[in-house]
Structure formats: C-alpha cells, structure tokens
Amino acid sequence: MASRGRAPRQSDIARVAGVTQSTVSLVLSGRAVAESIPRATQDRVFAAVKELQYVPNVAATSLRGGRTGLIGVHTFEPVFPVASDDYYNPILVGIEEQAVELKVDLVLFASTQGNDGIRRIYANGTNRLRLADGAVMLGMEQNEEDLVRLAAEQYPFVFIGQRGGASAQRPYVAPDYHKALASALDPLAEAGHRRIAYLGESVRRSPQEARYEGFRAHVARLGLSSGEPRFLALDELNADVLHDILRDGSTALVIEHHDPATRAAAIVRELGLDIPRDLSIVVLDTVPDGSPARAWSQIRMPRRALGRRAISMLVELLDGSIPNTYHELLPVDPPSTASISSP
C-alpha cells in the first residue's frame, strides 16, 4: 500500500499489480493495446488502481500531452439527443452554446455504439474519447467498468447528473434535488395536505434516490406522512395503483419522473378523475411537450444550464482550477400550482 499520509503513485500500482512501472504507465495512458499488453495484465493494473483509490492529476497530464482544443460529448443513451423533442436536447443545446462562448470545438462520439445499440467507451479495446482533450458525459445507462478504467487512464471527464459508485469520485453538475423537493412539498403542505404518496421508477439510480431522499427529508420537516413509496415499472402502473393511493388516505401524489407522469395522466383520464379536485399532483421532472401531464405542476429541470456548466467545468478541470471530486448543484424552477388545490 501507499505510505500513510501520501497519495498512491504509479509505483504503488506496479507493486500491487506485480508489473513494472512502465507497464502501468502504458496501461493508464491508453496505449496497452498498441503495445500488445495482455488483457489479464491490464485487468490487474485496473484492479490495483481501484484498490489503492489512485486519482491522477488531470491538469498535469493535460499539460504533458498538449491540447487539441476539442471537447468530446459522449452519451450512454441509444441515440444522440439531436431531435428537438428529445428530453436531453436542451442539454445538448446548452453544451453547444457554451462551447461557442469558450471557443472550443465539439466532437460527438457516435462510433462508440455497438451493433446491439449499447454505447461502450472501449468497444474495440481502445479509448476513442482520446481524440478530444476531455469529454462531457450524459445519459443513464453508464458502464461502471468503463468509467473506472477511463478514470485510471487519467482521462478528464465531467458528468451531467448526480452519480454514485466510482462515478461519484469524478466531477458532476446536477440539479439541486433537496431544494427542489422543498419547492414541491411546501405548497402541498400550505394547501392543507397531510398525507402525500410517492410514485417512483423501479430502476433506482443516484438521481432517483436523491429525489426520494429529499422527499423523505421534507415530509419529516413538515410533519407529514407518506406511507410506503411505490417504485414501479411503467407496465406495473395501472388504475389499481391510483385507487390504492386514494384508499390509503393520500390526498396528494408526488411523481418522480416524466414517464410515469405521462402514464398516470392517461389512467387519470380513463378513470374520469379531476386533477386537482380528486388528487393534487406534482411531478419532480420537466414533462415533455405533447404529454397529457404537461399542464400538471412540475419542477423545471435546468437542462440548458446543466449543459453550459458542464462544458465550463471540463475546461476548469483541464486547467487545474477544480479537483477531480468537484460537484456542483444548480437551482431548479419551482412548480406552479396548476395541479395543486386543498384536499
């Protein structure tokens, strides 16, 4: 292990992995394939990196390697969000706007998508992202193994959205969910609601958990009750779920994401419920145009601002003015009272 009181070095990685320091350098610089280093050896190096919690000096690496002036954009979604009605499109617009302002060029990494539709950074064993000085990452279907390897190779990247696991040790910019939940629950409490149900997604990632943790914290702060949360897949959300919510005494419903909100709106219409007379609803997300839930009270996520700030943070990371572990939360716009009324 590294000596107490100092950060681990490449020599420590070499000792733990049982390889030479030059091998460590080749693996971490992304030249392992070109130098015919066996995959088993690479795996030992990355395992040592993870064990020692090695964090490279991104700024120093960038200065040694020089700059191309190119900033990469990598999405874990199946399709790049270029369509105007795509949920992530405002983020991409913000990225482009800030790139223009900072006079850097953008590279969209489309070749990372495999035949199965899944995007992998190391699809062919090499890191295509190295064409750019650094990259902004967006989308939910991240590959933790790829990200650990990318960080170990000292490649600079910034996430859009809150992340856990190995990704939590890298810079990210995300909405401030804790304050967002205060803006969602305060008007419900002021309207007289005392029991509020929570409808979330079945797949639980850091953004979903951050929303629910904020919900629990503010329910406790306001002296409200909520019962057990309902974490459901879209095909599990049906009329029985809404009937159960009403039967258990809940007079308001907080919905975690725009997809279940759209599904819930269709069910509400089928049941002939009046929103907000029969049930007050707040959505913890921006509901897309065309959704039957578009008029409901909703938190407006700062998607364009997230894109702009991600580019600025990446440049700051390259310059060494922020650390690898820097995280920033942006304010959200509070919901209207369109689907909030007294019980």
Automatic annotation (TrEMBL):
List the SMART domains hit by this protein, alphabetically. Answer: HTH_LACI (SM00354)
Q: Where is the signal peptide?
A: none
Q: Name one GO molecular function term.
A: DNA-binding transcription factor activity
Task: Enumerate the UniProt keywords alphabetically.
Answer: DNA-binding, Repressor, Transcription, Transcription regulation
* CDD domains, sorted: HTH_LacI, PBP1_LacI_sugar_binding-like
Check the record and name the InterPro entries matching this protein.
HTH_LacI, LacI/GalR-like_sensor, Lambda_DNA-bd_dom_sf, Peripla_BP_I
User: Gene3D superfamilies attached here?
Assistant: 3.40.50.2300, lambda repressor-like DNA-binding domains (1.10.260.40)
Q: Which domain of life is it from?
A: Bacteria
Provide the HTH lacI-type domain boundaries: 8-65
Record's keyword annotation contains Ribonucleoprotein: no
Q: Which PANTHER family match?
A: HTH-TYPE TRANSCRIPTIONAL REPRESSOR PURR-RELATED, LACI-RELATED TRANSCRIPTIONAL REPRESSOR
Name of the molecule in the record: DNA-binding transcriptional regulator, LacI/PurR family
